[in-house]
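A.,

Following up on our hallway conversation. Structure tokens first:
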């Protein structure tokens, strides 16, 4: 009987796991889960990036209609008469004012494409909206799409966005993008639309080895 009991105990120990083995299995499962989750999120960003590219083309079509009607592209800085409440998201806000100005519907864009990341407003509405809030047109990550009229290519602007890695709101300077091959701005004679892309950071991201995943209404080599 004693021999049988010892044999049964050995079988149980052989069939079971030690605490170290269980911890090792949990670590492996965690790594695999993180890998799969990263791939899923990466795939979602690919879909959002393509959607944003298509949306920039849609915005460009509306800007083209505005230029045909007004003889120029929408301005990207506030006039003295309007008086900007702050200097954040100016180009994006002026684009909304132009597209949704009195007498213009701007109905091409759904409401979920509009945001107010810097939470500012004029004293009275100058658009077809009843609210005086200064909205921006946003990309698929909810960040404002930077807009530069060619006149303002040499003037950096401040934009508010969310760093997707940290989830933190921050404001940073954004510049019109230059073509490294020519030294001139992209779309030299028209305008630039720039999305901060998946990372929510305009331009090269210092926290990601200087990678630039911005999306624009022109082609450029992403680093």
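Then the amino acids I'd put at each of the 223 positions:
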């Amino acid at each position: 009987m004693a021999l049988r009991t010892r044999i049964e105990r050995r079988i149980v120990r052989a069939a079971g796991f030690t605490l170290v083995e269980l911890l090792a299995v949990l670590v492996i499962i965690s790594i695999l889960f993180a890998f799969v989750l990263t791939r899923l999120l990466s795939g979602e960003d690919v879909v959002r990036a393509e959607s944003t590219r298509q949306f920039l083309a849609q915005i460009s079509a509306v800007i083209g209609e505005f230029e045909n009607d007004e003889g120029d592209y929408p301005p990207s800085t506030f006039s003295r008469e309007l008086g900007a409440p702050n200097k954040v998201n100016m180009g994006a806000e002026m684009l909304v004012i132009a597209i949704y100005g009195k007498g213009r519907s701007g109905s091409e864009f759904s409401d979920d494409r509009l945001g107010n990341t810097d939470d500012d407003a004029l004293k009275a509405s100058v658009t077809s909206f009843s609210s005086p809030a200064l909205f921006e047109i946003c990309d698929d990550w909810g960040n404002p799409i930077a807009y530069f009229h060619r006149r303002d290519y040499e003037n950096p602007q401040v934009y508010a966005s969310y760093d997707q890695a940290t989830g933190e709101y921050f404001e940073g300077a954004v510049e019109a993008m230059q073509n490294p091959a020519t030294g001139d701005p992209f779309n030299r004679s028209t305008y630039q639309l720039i999305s901060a892309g998946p990372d929510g950071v305009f331009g090269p991201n210092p926290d990601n080895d200087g990678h630039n995943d911005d999306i624009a209404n022109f082609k450029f080599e992403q680093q």
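The mean pLDDT is 83. Curious whether your intuition agrees with the design.

B.
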